[in-house]
């Protein structure tokens, strides 16, 4: 989901801007400085602008500032690392430690607000947690690779071994996750279409989006493309959790208690990936949160 400004949150030293601290459609040579969030959503201007200014006292203004403060701290860490001779920082190598309302230790990994933030966060989270795309993955990007690996390994190991090696051969990217979500919806179209109509009836969605409309939309990347939740809201998070076999936890900064809290979760697997939502209603931004103890166990 996208709310953004082109202003880079710098801590002093000059730095590179780019795709963010995540795993998107293309390759990345290293982590990049993170842009700050502005309070005005480019897509939804029907709200009261006075209540949503970035330095205002509204709830969204405060959770923007909370997120931007974490992003600034991340940028400072990145610039310090770049100051070391020969230092290379890969995406996901640096993070900012935070605690939620219950005292759980989490690691914050910011994503640039470029329209792909939600999908990039899921991809980076899966990569850092060592999670694999569930078996049965047949998206276009993987078919040729899996076929080649299958031929090369057809005489080595058991069938189960070959399947395990092939599943590890597909790099988890934001674009691949988009296709897996599309496949999940296509495979269960009756469920999702009925749920979308029900949500529209209860006013959870502004306009009904059919399965066919959603599947055409979800694979479009970039700022003018499909951002996670823009058509079906939390239904898209459910589809992603089911498709990827994850437990996706949704967090926000509670401006009343001034705490980070989890407000929802969708459990369809043992691996937990958290998304920090900054914004309000039908627009906003996602950054990645991972439980520090679980992340440490993966190292």
3D architecture notes:
The protein is an alpha+beta fold and 299 residues long. It is 39% helix and 15% strand. The protein has helices spanning 49-52, 59-82, 117-129, 140-152, 159-168, 174-187, 189-201, 211-218, 234-244, 292-298, and strands at residues 96-99, 105-109, 246-254, 259-267, 271-280, 283-291. It has a 6-stranded mixed beta sheet, with helices on both faces. The longest helix is centred in the first third of the chain and has 24 residues, at 59-82. The radius of gyration is 19 Å and the shape is globular. The protein starts with 48 loop residues before the first helix and ends with a helix. Mean pLDDT is 75; it is low at 1-20, 24-29, 40-56 and 141-169.
3D shape: globular
Separation, N- and C-terminal Cα atoms: 30 Å
Q: How would you write the strand order of the largest sheet?
A: 1-2-6-5-3-4
- Give the H and E element order: HHEEHHHHHHHEEEEH
Number of strands: 6
Topology:
Layout: H1 49-52, H2 59-82, E1 96-99, E2 105-109, H3 117-129, H4 140-152, H5 159-168, H6 174-187, H7 189-201, H8 211-218, H9 234-244, E3 246-254, E4 259-267, E5 271-280, E6 283-291, H10 292-298
Parallel strand pairs: 3-5
Antiparallel strand pairs: 1-2, 2-6, 3-4, 5-6
Q: What descriptors fit this protein?
A:
299 residues, alpha+beta, 39% helix, globular, disordered N terminus
Short description, anyone?
The protein has ten helices and six strands; from the N terminus they run H-H-E-E-H-H-H-H-H-H-H-E-E-E-E-H.
């Amino acid at each position: 989901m996208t709310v953004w400004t082109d202003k880079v949150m710098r801590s002093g030293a000059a730095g590179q801007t780019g795709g963010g601290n995540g795993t998107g459609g293309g390759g990345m040579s290293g982590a990049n400085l993170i842009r700050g969030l502005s309070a005005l959503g480019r897509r939804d201007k029907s709200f009261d602008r006075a209540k949503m200014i970035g330095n205002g006292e509204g709830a969204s203004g405060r959770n923007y500032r909370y997120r931007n403060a974490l992003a600034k701290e991340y940028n400072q860490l990145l610039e310090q690392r770049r100051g070391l001779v020969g230092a290379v920082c890969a995406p996901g190598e640096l993070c900012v430690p935070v605690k939620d309302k219950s005292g759980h230790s989490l690691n914050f990994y910011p994503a640039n607000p470029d329209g792909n933030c939600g999908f990039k966060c899921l991809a980076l989270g899966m990569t850092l947690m060592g999670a694999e795309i569930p078996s049965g993955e047949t998206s276009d990007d993987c078919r040729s690779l899996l076929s080649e690996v299958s031929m090369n390994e057809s005489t080595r190991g058991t069938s189960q071994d070959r399947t395990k090696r092939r599943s590890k051969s597909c790099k988890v990217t934001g674009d691949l996750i988009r296709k897996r979500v599309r496949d999940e919806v296509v495979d269960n179209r009756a469920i999702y279409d009925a749920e979308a109509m029900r949500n529209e009836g209860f006013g959870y969605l502004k306009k009904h989006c059919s399965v066919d409309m959603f599947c055409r939309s979800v694979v479009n990347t970039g700022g003018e493309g499909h951002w996670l939740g823009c058509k079906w809201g939390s239904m898209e998070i459910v589809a992603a959790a089911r498709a990827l076999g994850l437990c996706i936890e949704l967090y926000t900064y509670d401006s009343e208690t001034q705490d980070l809290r989890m407000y929802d979760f969708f459990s369809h697997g043992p691996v937990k990936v958290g998304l920090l939502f900054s914004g309000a209603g039908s627009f906003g931004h996602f950054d990645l949160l991972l439980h520090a103890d679980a992340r440490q166990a993966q190292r």
